[in-house]
Design a protein that fits this description.
The chain has one domain. It is built from 8 helices and no strands. By secondary structure, the protein is an all-alpha fold. About 6% of the residues have low confidence.
Length: 190
């Protein structure tokens, strides 16, 4: 569970779902409803990843190891490229209050994040970890806790977080974690 949390948390920080969460809270001014919707979307996201990882786990160990190392390697490259291309054009700027029910805000939040997270790096990482784990449910729980923790940061800190945290540095940190996991998996294969 801890391995999944430590892997997914830094990768989720500069992710589009973080910006979507901030945008939704800024627009609707209903942080609890947004967080519940986003957290529910993450349940679906993680369940699919753990299921995919479980299916990968049915393959021979060498094949699973190679696929897992490749997923982490691809993740490291994508995060590194993202860090190099980091710019301020991700800034969220939605103004105005919208009088929408909490249920509708939660459903909108669910939909936005469920679509945004499809095939995301954290979903690939979760699938890779689950494929090599004897406890894929623990991997799923750890990944989900990491994601809802980031969503909680987005909800509580909102715009202040984006003005104080260099997402470029977070991307570099996440790239380093993914690269280390790629190397670790490759060494484990040897």
């Amino acid at each position: 569970m801890l391995q999944a949390f430590v892997t997914v948390f830094p990768a989720e920080l500069p992710d589009k779902s973080m910006f979507a969460t901030i945008a939704l809270v800024t627009h609707y001014h209903r942080p609890v409803a947004v967080w519940l919707g986003v957290s529910s979307a993450f349940v679906v996201h993680v369940a699919i990843a753990v299921l995919a990882g479980g299916l990968l786990g049915l393959l021979p160990d060498l094949v699973v190891g190679i696929i897992t190392a490749a997923l982490f390697g691809i993740g490291a490259i994508l995060l590194f490229r993202s860090a190099r291309q980091a710019s301020d054009d991700e800034e969220v700027d939605l103004e105005g209050r919208s009088e929408v029910s909490a249920l509708r805000v939660a459903l909108i939040s669910f939909g936005v994040v469920a679509v945004a997270e499809w095939g995301d790096l954290t979903q690939l990482a979760t699938a890779g970890l689950a494929s090599r784990s004897t406890s894929p449910v623990s991997i799923g729980v750890g990944a989900w806790l990491a994601m809802i923790s980031v969503a909680a940061l987005g909800v509580t800190l909102g715009r202040r977080l984006t003005s104080r945290v260099s997402f470029e540095k977070v991307n570099y940190l996440a790239a380093a974690v993914f690269a280390a996991l790629c190397i670790w998996t490759a060494i484990d294969l040897i």
